[in-house]
Amino acid sequence: MTLIEGQTSIAEFTANELYARILNNEAIFILDVRNEDEFKRSPIEGHEHLTSVNIPYFEFLEDEDGSVARVPADREIMVVCAKEGSSQYVAELLAGHGYSARYLQGGFTSWGNFYDVRDVVNAAWGRIVQIARPARGDLSFAVISDGKMALIDPMRHTEIYLNLAAEAGATMTHLLDTHVHADHISGGPALATITGATYYVHAYDAIHPIDMLPATIAYTSLEDGQQFQVGQTTITVAWFPGHTLGQVNYRVDTPDGRSALFTGDGIFLRSFGRPDLGGKGEAWTPILYRSLTERLPKIVNDDTLILPAHFSTLDEGNAEGIFAAPYSEVRAHNDALKPRSEAEFTAYVLSHLPVFPPEYVEIKRVNIGLVEACDGKANELELGKNICALAG
Amino acid sequence: MANSFDQTLDVKGAKCPMPLVKSRKAIADLTVGQVLKVVATDRGSVADFQGWAKTAKNVELVAQETEQEGGQDLYVHYLKRTS
């Protein structure tokens, strides 16, 4: 097998096709040829019919026949690497052995930066649109009504949101971050520059919790109870400290009497936002407890649709890939809301904290303008799925 | 730097998997015990060369360095042919 640079005899597949097949719960065989560390940090995950096997590409170089023999010959092989080149190489090598193989266009970077856009609500007054980044488990939302658009937790690929606004014929008016994110770079400040819309974040989050340095980005601070009109909808700010001190929820009330709560990293569908990413877990955990037990019940009713900023597994969504549930369902199934004392909650949280990704400190710096990140650096900082949630 | 070497391979600008494919070929041209210095611009080469050296039977990764050249990061790998 010889490799001719730039040869393209093997077919590609796109992140879009991969996600559609995952949602359909089709049988998928992913051959991930990245090195073991990258694979372990950020495997491609799906439903039960997705199989993902890691054989680094250099193993194919060293032992072609032995490595090929580890790949099943009775199905299509979807080869994935970091940036595309090695997966194309391995797919061609497999084809040479009689396999049906394709490779992921753009490599894992394109999967990590793939966005899925779909309506959660489409009503006479307007729409709530979910803009998901499936590889990262990140969710953002748009509220569109009467030609106005508010975005909640927009991510850094601003063209996704600009396209959505253009297609909807809407003007961005409010860029609403629930908090300063640690796991991904916000698109809010950039969209504010592009569109002239106002970027909002709570002032408590405009100080880096570890550096103790103030934000250099332009932002407008939020207050508990503050309201915005977006077309026919009303958005109400509800301070929800815990994951960060400045975390807020946004409740949108629509003219049909319904409501939805954008919870950011407050409560998720089956878990809640970890309170230690500011480096002060012991101090912030009791604050989170009071937000979950005292603040949350006051701002929702049983039918309020909970729309969080993250999911941990695709199983939290429905078959269409929408990650939403009425509060009654979340209350029944999310252990975050099970009755327990503050002391029990605190003891549980502090003994069950997931690993603290070191890049999360740097991402917060980027998000308040203390450092800049080019695309390459941003891709590296954001590699892999978010680790913002804690269940139980 | 203190690392000694016998041959140099320039794979600046080459994208994965070419730095490794070419290094493998260059190693085969060395005699046992000689060291190849590989200069790459692909950051992914750092982890990949580590993984490759563990997999390959005749290669030892002696050292890895990062250098700057005209504002560009260079990833330098020293590989010894062991058999």
Describe this structure in words.
- The complex is a heterodimer of chains A (392) and B (83).
- With 392 residues, chain A is an alpha/beta fold.
- Chain A folds into 2 domains: 12-111, Rhodanese-like domain (Oxidized Rhodanese, domain 1, 3-Layer(aba) Sandwich); 115-390, 4-Layer Sandwich (Metallo-beta-lactamase, Chain A), CATH 3.60.15.10.
- Helices cover 30% and strands 23% of the residues of chain A.
- Chain A contains 13 helices and 19 strands.
- Chain A has helices at 15-23, 36-41, 57-62, 64-69, 85-96, 107-112, 158-168, 188-195, 281-299, 327-333, 342-351, 359-367, 375-381; strands at 12-13, 28-32, 50-54, 77-80, 101-104, 116-123, 126-133, 138-145, 148-152, 171-176, 198-200, 227-230, 233-239, 248-253, 259-264, 272-273, 305-308, 325-326, 389-390.
- In chain A, strands 6-7-8-9-10-11 form a 6-stranded mixed β-sheet.
- Chain A is globular, with a radius of gyration of 22 Å.
- Chain B is of the alpha+beta class and 83 residues long.
- Chain B has a single domain, classed as TusA-like domain (Translation Initiation Factor IF3, 2-Layer Sandwich).
- Helices cover 27% and strands 39% of the residues of chain B.
- Chain B has helices at residues 18-28, 45-55; strands at 7-11, 35-40, 59-69, 72-81.
- In chain B, strand 3 and strand 4 (72-81) form a beta hairpin.
- The longest helix of chain B has 11 residues, at 18-28.
- The N and C termini of chain B lie far apart (26 Å).
- The relative contact order of chain B is 0.26.
- The A-B interface holds A 3, 5, 35-38, 56-59, 61-62, 81-83, 85-86, 89 and B 15-18, 20-21, 24, 44, 47-48, 50-52, 55-57.
